[in-house]
Design goal:
Layout: E1 2-6, E2 11-17, E3 26-38, E4 41-49, H1 58-73, E5 76-79, H2 82-90
Parallel strand pairs: 4-5
Antiparallel strand pairs: 1-2, 2-3, 3-4
């Protein structure tokens, strides 16, 4: 799978690798992760995998790529999407990217 940031759509897209006979080289869109970027924070809003590709780790691969990109950009992330929040909980290597929860007042 190839994951690319598509800023004009405000999302990361996961595409299956294209077939050799496909001159564009872009494969089928398998899923995406929508985001909103503001003040050095990336709100990761919604992960979606098309039904034909569910159960293959598509959302996890796209999430991993988005988190790696956030780290490279020096950004923090706010996991709005429950899938992304669960991913962060089970992958402590990304814990430093999460925006700390505000303390109760």
């Amino acid at each position: 799978m190839i994951v690319n940031d598509v800023p004009e759509l405000a999302r990361f897209e996961g595409r299956l690798e294209g077939r050799p006979e496909d001159p564009a080289g872009a494969g089928d869109l398998a899923g995406y992760l929508e985001y909103h970027r503001f003040d050095g924070v990336w709100a990761l809003n919604h992960a979606f995998t098309f039904p034909a590709y569910r159960g293959r780790g598509v959302a996890a691969e796209i999430t991993r790529a988005a988190l790696d990109a956030a780290r490279e950009a020096g950004a923090q992330v706010r996991p709005i999407c429950p899938f992304v929040a669960d991913y962060l909980d089970t992958h402590p290597e990304y814990a430093d990217l999460a925006v700390p929860e505000k303390a109760e007042q």
